[in-house]
Amino acid sequence: MAAYGRLPRMIKRGLYCAVLLASIVLQSGAQDRITLHDVNVIDVRAGKIVPHQDVVIEGERIRSVGPTGKPGRGASVQHTGGYVIPGLWDMHVHLAGVNADPKWSGVLLERLLAYGITSARDMGSDLEALKQWRKEIGDGSRRGPTLYFSGPMLSTQPASVPEQRTVRTADDAVKAVDELKAQGADFIKILHIPRAAYFPLSEEAKKQHIEFVGHLPFGVTVQEAAAAGQKSIEHINWSVLALDCSAHPKENRERLFAAFDSKEADAYDRAVVAADKDFDEKNCAGAAEAMVKHGTWLVPTLVSEEIGANITTARPDESYLKLLPKKLQEDWSAEKLKTENSDAHIELLEKEWMADQKIASFLHSHGVKMLAGSDSLDAMNFPGPSLHRELQLLVEMGMTPAESLRAATLSAAEFMGKAAEIGSVEAGKAADLLVLRENPLKNIGNTRTIEMVIVRGSVVGVGMD
């Protein structure tokens, strides 16, 4: 994590020697009281800077935020200057499934922290592994972000791995909701299930007081999903939002079903691209209106689509890649990715990527609430840096830097029902904080200029590699 090349600049900016030592050896355990002195606090709610503030942390919480003064007795000044933001949330990850074997993926937890991600919503993984990690993070034996998770994704496909569970009937759906809640899942994640299972699932989720989220099933419209209480829709084209944003949703839906049943490799993507070309503003506005009315959020995962469209030319972070298992390194090699993706397939993915940006921008302009999620660990989608790219893509899509930052902080906390505890730099809230060298409201890319990561009151790193 150390950023050795920045040490002289850090010294000139007044950092204390203790901070420089912490950049080499990670600190553990919350101190009694630490102070971030004379910093610029980013008010993510208002989207503005509050300059010259002292942020005092006591134990695991923020004790006070106020005008800069002389540090109190017993305070350990850990940083002077910079921009303080809440810790980031990645609202769509797969940490113990979808390429991430629980036997090795604990390394990903450390990587998330290195990139300032102090909370994460896992959208389909081995439930027992996640529960164990949460326990270890809670008792301090493992370092990692606060985790929220669904356990297995619900799908019509035969389940051969812990991150998936087969649901084909109403009885399957009800049983899945009941058992997953009893086993400790925080919410239910749908991949693709039939209409006959979807609506019984939504009713059982209400009875059990547990939220359900995920893909928009092929046979369910945006309006129906929103009215049924689906709290978030993940992705755009992968969740076939293009169908309800098209001029002929019924016909395009029938084409998609036929493509899915055909088992032809590119048939599904061609059907999605056909719906994309059939974009209709009136129908898409109707979909947005339903989402706004019922409080349904969108997690567009733009970075995942961008990576897919450039999968044969993307240049990986070699230092990060070396941390992953040899098998995964081989699967993500340029040679293998080129072999698995024909030029015609990439052309389809590029068209879907362009449509994703258009639909996301349209929905945002019509008031649909959005969250920042990366969908890592799909191919070449590295947990940590991919979230920072997602924030940039949200700005390119039409958000202001303040809106993009909010999508990965306070909005995420609000979505999870935790806004009273976390998600902004305020007294009484959990001390999950980042100190940045540069202003993220000026350029959202500055979320990468991390100088300090604080998790539950403990300084866990200085500088992002």
**Structural class determined from secondary elements:** alpha/beta
In terms of per-residue confidence, which ranges show pLDDT below 50 for 5 or more consecutive residues? Answer: 1-30
Count of DSSP strands? 17
Largest sheet: 8 strands, mixed
Q: Count of DSSP helices?
A: 19
Q: Which bin fits the share of residues in helices?
A: 25-40%
Radius of gyration: 22 Å
Strand residues, percent? 15-25%
Averaged pLDDT, please?
91
What form results from the Cα inertia axes? Answer: globular
Distance between the termini: 5 Å
Description:
The protein has 465 residues and is of the alpha/beta class. Helices cover 40% and strands 19% of the residues. Strands 1, 2, 3, 4, 5, 15, 16 and 17 form an eight-stranded mixed beta sheet that branches. Strands 10-9-11-12 form a four-stranded parallel beta sheet, covered by helices on one side. Strands 6-7-8 form a three-stranded parallel beta sheet, covered by helices on one side. Strand 7, helix 4 and strand 8 form a beta-alpha-beta unit. The N terminus is likely disordered.
Condensed summary:
The protein is an alpha/beta fold.
